[in-house]
Amino acid sequence: MKMTTDHLLANPCDEEEDNMAMLCCISAPNDMFVMSRYPDEDELDITLNDEFSSLDGVKVTLSPTRLLIEVAADDTDVFNGDDHLEITHGTDVSCLADVEQTLINILKGTGTYVSELS
User: Fold this and answer.
1) Could you list the residue range(s) of the whole structural domain that residue 86 is in?
2) How far apart are CA 5 and CA 89, in angstroms?
3) In this structure, which of 17, 75, 106, 115 has its CB flanked by the most CB atoms within 10 Å?
4) CA angle centred on 13, ends 10 and 14, rounded to 5°
């Protein structure tokens, strides 16, 4: 599954929401993707449009222009049967540190983060 967005919105620790880390974006045809996790939860949450799933074992790779989210074969329903979601983004380089920290916070202890930023 693929999406394209102008930018990724990231909040590594929302104090007003019990320190939830959240990453989201909206694509050109108004598809919405949200990945979030509270620090005391064992799973992360993914919402794609109106579909909500709680997962663990997610692998996320971030590059300056691409975010790749890979899920286990048992969890492909989250991406309409695909085992991954590839988001092409135009996020400003100055914002990528927040995106990276958010992903680290979301995936800590429940997934794998791979950085291709260097």
Assistant:
1) 2-115
2) 5
3) 106
4) 90
Dist. CA 56–CA 44, nearest whole Å: 6
Tell me the two tokens of residue 97.
């540190």
Q: How many domains are there within the chain?
A: 1
Tokens of 85: 């979601």
**Residue of 51, 66, 58 whose CA lies nearest to 3:** 66
What's the DSSP call for residue 98?
H
At 99-110, the pLDDT tens digits run: 999 999 999 999
Question: In this structure, which amino acid lies at residue 70?
Answer: E
Report if pTM > 0.85.
yes
